[in-house]
Automatic annotation (TrEMBL), chain A:
NCBIfam families: PRK09646.1, sigma70-ECF. The keyword Transcription applies. CDD domains: Sigma70_r4. Residues 39-105 form the RNA polymerase sigma-70 region domain. Keywords: Sigma factor, Transcription, Transcription regulation. GO terms for biological process: DNA-templated transcription initiation. This is Sigma-70 family RNA polymerase sigma factor. The keyword Transcription applies. InterPro entries: RNA_pol_sigma-70-like, RNA_pol_sigma-70_dom, RNA_pol_sigma70_r2, RNA_pol_sigma70_r4_t2, RNA_pol_sigma_r2, RNA_pol_sigma_r3/r4-like, WH-like_DNA-bd_sf. One of its GO terms (molecular function) is sigma factor activity.
Automatic annotation (TrEMBL), chain B:
Pfam families: RskA_C, RskA_N. Residues 10-51 form the Anti-sigma-K factor RskA N-terminal domain. Residues 101-239 form the Anti-sigma K factor RskA C-terminal domain. Keywords: Cell membrane, Membrane, Transcription, Transcription regulation, Transmembrane, Transmembrane helix. It is found in: Cell membrane; Membrane. This is Regulator of SigK. Its main location: membrane. GO terms for molecular function: sigma factor antagonist activity.
Length: 197, 246
């Protein structure tokens, strides 16, 4: 059996949107071979998000498993006009990971958690096993273009799963300021990464 | 200690795309999204951006994860596409209206019958309990609604496999023959039938909501006519069968 693998080292990552979207179409019809390809393309980032947000590796694997099964089960609900298949899958992954971490942690635990947080960048947490990819370099470069406050707010919200209200408390900043930082930061990232729809 | 009213709900698109809204605010924002096409576009773009942040964290998954996932999906049937009836949020909004109607009808019925105040209180508590259960069900990520109509009678089922719960509501059902009642069944893939409760024979054709639990291996719900009091196993063929989403 021939498996297509297309991540040329050093080159720009191919736009996998269409291919993944078509594969999801096949998944919706019960095509498990198509799902295997979805798995091979997406299990890494799905597990990466889960690991970054929930920290505990065993729990992260559980979350990743749930996410991937949800992708299989709900493939027919993917709407290409609303974004890439990859974005859809990673949105599910992030939502599930955040739900998990919020349901497991009471408020005080969460504060302890942030107190223990060191200053390393969240995307370095699992640096040893992180897959080298072009995208990672791009994200790093784009994050570096943000102000410290924008970057910190986005990292606390996205990588640590805090609500914007918690982020405001953790940073001793007014809610409005945090909302503005999150928005300006994300918009800047969007432009830097050339997210097109 | 009241929360300030947020004049610019639009500013919530970024925290929403980052899943950084507390659940109550996320729900309110979703309602807003249904009316605000610009906001949907913004959320889609910001989500796509957030997804890039996620993609950058990719790790190499252990081989056993692949095995486990592939084994498990073999047992899961993908959901059918949504046809007619609109997107989920519309279906979701449908429920609370019905619930309110049911509770009102329940209360009205009790008052008319002149039952003791304590009983009314019990019923109200029960209504509130139903309300809380319903909220939980409606909020489940995988909540699905299925409706079937046969003649004038209509069955509606809300299912959330993650909660292992299905709720049945019947409308426009002809009264069961004298001395008989409707009964709800969990129909297993292997042909087994397990009672999910007696529905009675309502004069107004309205039954439920009846909560059925234990959906493992259950692919349909069925309604049969049984002698008063119900039967341990169905004695007649179902008058209504509802396919449950996988």
């Amino acid at each position: 059996m021939v498996t297509l693998r297309s991540v040329p080292a050093g080159g720009p990552e191919p736009e996998p949107g269409d291919r993944l979207g078509r594969l999801l179409d096949h998944c919706a019809r019960g095509d498990t071979a198509a799902f295997e390809q979805v798995y091979d393309a997406m299990a890494g980032p799905v597990l990466g998000i889960a690991t970054t947000v929930v920290r505990n590796r065993a729990v992260a694997e559980e979350v990743a498993q749930e996410v991937l099964i949800e992708v299989w089960r709900t493939a027919s609900r993917y709407q290409p006009e609303r974004g890439s298949a990859r974005g859809w899958i990673l949105t599910i992954a992030h939502r599930r990971a955040v739900d998990r971490v919020r349901s497991e942690q009471a408020g005080t635990d969460r504060e302890d958690r942030v107190a223990r947080r060191d200053d390393e960048r969240p995307y370095d947490h699992v640096a040893d096993e992180v897959e080298a990819n072009v995208e990672r370099e791009q994200v790093r470069r784009c994050l570096d273009t943000l102000t410290d406050l924008q970057r910190e707010s986005i990292a606390l919200a996205y990588y640590d799963g805090y609500t914007y209200r918690e982020v405001a408390q953790l940073l001793h900043a007014p809610l409005g300021t945090v909302k503005t930082r999150l928005r300006d930061g994300l918009v800047r990232l969007r432009d830097c990464m050339g997210v097109a729809r | 200690m009241s929360k300030p009213v947020d004049a610019g709900i639009h500013t919530l698109a970024a925290p929403y795309a980052l899943h950084a809204l507390p659940s109550d605010e996320a729900r309110r924002f979703e309602q807003h999204l249904e009316r605000c096409a610009d906001c949907r576009v913004e959320v889609d773009e910001l989500r796509e951006t957030a997804a890039r942040l996620g993609a950058a964290t990719a790790v190499t998954p252990p081989p056993r994860l692949r095995e486990e996932v592939l084994t498990r999906i073999a047992e899961v049937r993908p959901l059918p596409p949504r046809v007619a009836g609109g997107p989920a949020p519309v279906l979701r909004r449908w429920w609370p209206r019905v619930a309110t109607g049911l509770v009102a009808a329940l209360v009205a019925g009790i008052v008319v019958l002149g039952i003791r105040l304590d009983d009314v209180q019990d019923e109200l508590d029960r209504s509130q309990q139903i309300g809380a259960q319903m909220r939980q069900l409606v909020e489940a990520d995988d909540m699905e609604m299925v409706r079937v109509g046969q003649g004038d009678s209509q069955g509606t089922v809300l299912v959330a496999r993650s909660l292992d719960v299905a709720v049945f509501i019947g409308d426009g059902m002809a009264p069961a023959p004298d001395g008989h009642t409707y009964q709800l069944w969990l129909m297993h893939e292997d042909g087994g039938m397990v009672s999910a409760g007696v529905l009675g024979s309502p004069p107004d054709g309205h039954v439920g909501p009846v909560t059925a639990r234990g959906l493992t291996g259950v692919d349909r719900l069925g309604v049969t006519v049984e002698p008063d009091g119900g039967s341990p196993q169905p004695t007649t063929d179902p008058v209504m069968v509802i396919d449950l989403p996988a």
